[in-house]
Design brief:
single chain; DUF2252 domain-containing protein; DUF2252
Length: 438
């Protein structure tokens, strides 16, 4: 007698998910992405957000400290340690926080905390060189500050009053280094050249590619006719001369999870005629976030009714979650494909946790991460229900405040359990790669 098992083994599920998620990639892009993911479990985790959402969506533990309509808010959707970094410009200042909302989704606040906590377990081991006990303590600090920040908001502190400080190590030296070594002059020199008094993209770099004449014409038309109408207030704060496009190019080999998506850069005139005022716009194909794939039919219908398209969803999420919203956030459509548009920050830089060898510094950083996530969730909730912006903090605190220890312990346990699962999944992936190459 032959027995047929109804559910696949975990190894089969992981490999099937990877094939499904990456089937649209070219062979070269898939190989490039897989080489990145092979390196460590944490890199694998960063490249498999789709697997995380498949695993945790409607996990029963969500109802222990949430699972209510009022504990939902805008989520970052791919919360992990390396999605924190420096961002900003010379107009709004340079800041530290989360600045990537491609996978943003409306859902229970715990999903962001779960993913971020799991990333801390992997990061603390692989990059910061910390023990498991120290990682546990760091996660607990993050969660404590998160709840403290919600409590302060409920007591009358607005999201705009929740600040990240850059005085002490490790953020102070990091931010100073970003200010010293980055900026408009250096980033323009990296991506562009000036010839005969005109700036254009430098296509000799391996991260930039030429666009065809048809692509150029289509992009220029969309940037001229579509894009300005999608800016907040119709782009009235930005003059037509300011948005004058000088050049366009294709962005190559960017990201891990987003590798293979179409992406362009547009060089536009700045606030003056001076070449050093030029700006770069990042034009990126937007697809449904990983959470969408695991929603049921009713949830997907509600999703489609809420947003005109995925670039519209991205713009709303960015404006809701970002503490310093990009004034260039908008979108455009090329054929049937939607693209987000935003300024590429001259100061963009992830924080290098591999340079931390001191638990005290990591703990201090974890507390800032908790503050940042609480601020984003509060702002996201306010965007969803501006008539009662404190609904979210009240609901979360009602579920957690008198059970803080249980709340922290549940998330710490989940983070370590899921990190172990990621390590096993990564081993399966590496073994499959070796078998294929052998």
């Amino acid at each position: 007698m032959t027995f047929h098992f109804m559910r696949p083994a975990r190894s089969e599920l992981v490999l099937d998910e990877l094939r499904t998620q990456n089937r649209h990639l070219s062979d070269a892009d898939r190989e490039r992405k897989y080489r990145k993911m092979e390196r460590t479990p944490y890199r694998f985790f960063r490249g498999t957000n789709h697997l995380f959402w498949r695993d945790v969506w409607q996990d029963w533990r969500i109802y222990m400290f949430g699972g209510l309509r009022d504990t939902q808010t805008w989520l970052q959707g791919d919360a992990h340690v390396y999605n924190h970094g420096a961002y900003g410009d010379d107009r709004q200042g340079v800041h530290y926080g989360m600045d990537d909302f491609d996978d943003a989704v409306i859902g229970d606040y715990q999903y962001d905390l779960w993913r971020h906590a799991a990333s801390m377990v992997l990061d603390a081991e692989e990059n910061a060189g910390l023990s498991a006990g120290q990682a546990r303590r760091a996660i607990r600090h993050l969660l404590g500050v998160y709840l403290d920040t919600l409590a302060a908001y409920t007591a009358g502190t607005g999201p705009e009053d929740i600040h990240v400080t850059y005085i002490n190590k490790p953020l102070g030296p990091f931010m100073q280094k970003v200010l010293d070594k980055r900026g408009p002059k250096r980033y323009l020199a990296k991506w562009t050249v000036v010839e005969d008094g005109e700036r254009r993209f430098n296509l000799d770099t391996k991260k930039m590619g030429a666009v065809s004449a048809a692509e150029r014409s289509q992009l220029l038309k969309a940037l001229r006719e579509q894009y300005p109408e999608t800016l907040r207030n119709g782009g009235r704060e930005l003059s037509a001369a300011h948005l004058r496009v000088k050049d366009v190019a294709r962005r190559l080999n960017a990201g891990t999870g987003s590798l293979g998506l179409s992406r362009y850069y547009a060089l536009i005139a700045g606030a003056s005629d001076r070449l050093e005022d030029d700006l770069i716009l990042d034009i990126k194909q937007q697809t449904p976030p990983p959470a969408y794939r695991v929603m049921n039919a009713r949830e997907k219908r509600l999703w489609r009714r809420s947003f005109d398209h995925e670039a519209h969803r991205h713009a709303l999420a960015f404006q809701a979650l970002a503490n310093h919203p990009d004034e260039y956030i908008g979108w455009l459509t090329l054929d049937d494909t939607v693209f987000s548009v935003r300024e590429r920050s001259p100061y963009k830089k992830d924080f290098p946790t591999h340079k931390i060898r001191d638990f005290k510094q990591y703990r201090r950083l974890a507390r800032q991460w908790g503050r940042i996530m609480a601020r984003e969730h509060l702002q996201g909730a306010e965007a969803l229900r501006p008539d009662d912006p404190a609904y979210f903090s009240r609901a979360v605190l009602d579920r957690c405040d008198t059970r803080r220890e249980s709340f922290k312990q549940m998330i710490v346990d989940l983070a370590f359990t899921y990190a172990d699962c990621v390590r096993r999944d990564h081993a399966v992936f590496v073994a499959e790669r070796a078998a294929e190459s052998g």
